[in-house]
């Protein structure tokens, strides 16, 4: 009997979201432990500056990163520098779209690398020099209009599919927002109470890994036409 084609783990997310940084690493680790590196992670655009109507406040991102570091992931966010926090993520989302057009492995690698550069090495990943350097390291060009059109198309698709926030995962019929974490507000506006939810993450991945791939041939990053409709 031939093995079933591998499913695809889709996640709508923004680059400057600290919760996504933790969530992607948790999913990748579970994928490694299960020996399912055949399942690609397709990180798609959910630009929070459009969703919220404003850029992310660097101090808010730093607060969330510190909460995650203190309560969940002490090994992460070692180098986040609020003074070098990007003012926009659109060029990086467009670069990721270009990378996924090359192939899922390139897109996934770039999506993880850009978050490591931001959160672990304190780089302004949207600075033109950094953007060009990162593109060159993956043998990519600077983002072009079609790449930005893909960002628009993916944002529109996420709205249609009911994305609740960054990160929102899909796999087959399974859909879950931020499956690796439970996040709630502390009393009197004292920040966020965060804890790992491995059970929910495992349940989602159990369902995901038991499904058969949908047909994504030729669709990696190729949604620019949809943005013009």
Give an overview of the whole structure.
It contains eight helices and six strands. It is α+β, with helices and mostly antiparallel strands and 229 residues long. It has a single domain (9-228), classed as Glutaredoxin, CATH 3.40.30. It is globular, with a radius of gyration of 17 Å.
The CATH H-level superfamily is: Glutaredoxin
How many domains, as an integer? 1
- Determine the fraction of residues in helical runs and give it as a percent range: 40-55%
The top-level CATH class is: Alpha Beta
The CATH architecture assignment turns out to be 3-Layer(aba) Sandwich
Q: What is the rounded Rg?
A: 17 Å
What portion of the residues fall into strands of 2 or more residues?
Answer: 5-15%
Strand order of the largest sheet: 2-1-3-4
Number of helices: 8
Which shape, going by the Cα principal axes?
globular
Query: Can you tell me the residue ranges where pLDDT is under 50 for at least 5 consecutive residues?
Result: 224-229
* CATH T-level topology: Glutaredoxin
Average pLDDT: 91
Total strands: the figure is 6
Characterize the main sheet: 4 strands, mixed
Order of helices and strands: EHEHHHHHHEEEEH
Helix-strand category: alpha+beta
């Amino acid at each position: 009997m031939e093995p079933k084609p591998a499913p695809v783990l889709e996640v709508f997310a923004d680059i400057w979201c600290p919760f996504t940084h933790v969530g992607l690493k948790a999913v990748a680790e579970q994928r490694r432990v299960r020996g399912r590196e055949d399942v690609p992670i397709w990180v798609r655009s959910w630009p929070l500056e459009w969703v919220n109507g404003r850029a992310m406040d660097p101090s808010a991102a730093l607060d969330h990163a510190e909460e995650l570091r203190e309560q969940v992931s002490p090994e992460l966010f070692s180098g986040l520098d609020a003074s070098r926090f990007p003012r926009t993520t659109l060029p990086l989302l467009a670069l990721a779209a270009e990378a996924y057009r090359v192939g899922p492995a390139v897109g996934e690698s770039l999506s993880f690398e850009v978050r490591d550069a931001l959160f672990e090495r304190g780089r302004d990943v949207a600075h033109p020099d950094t953007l060009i350097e990162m593109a060159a390291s993956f043998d990519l060009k600077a983002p072009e209009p079609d790449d930005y059109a893909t960002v628009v198309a993916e944002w529109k698709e996420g709205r249609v599919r009911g994305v609740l926030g960054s990160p929102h995962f899909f796999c087959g019929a399974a859909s879950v927002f931020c499956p690796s974490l439970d996040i709630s507000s502390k009393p009197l506006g004292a920040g966020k109470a965060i804890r790992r939810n491995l059970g929910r993450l495992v349940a989602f991945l159990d369902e995901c890994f038991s499904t058969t791939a949908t047909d994504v041939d030729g669709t990696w990053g190729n949604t620019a036409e949809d943005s013009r409709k």
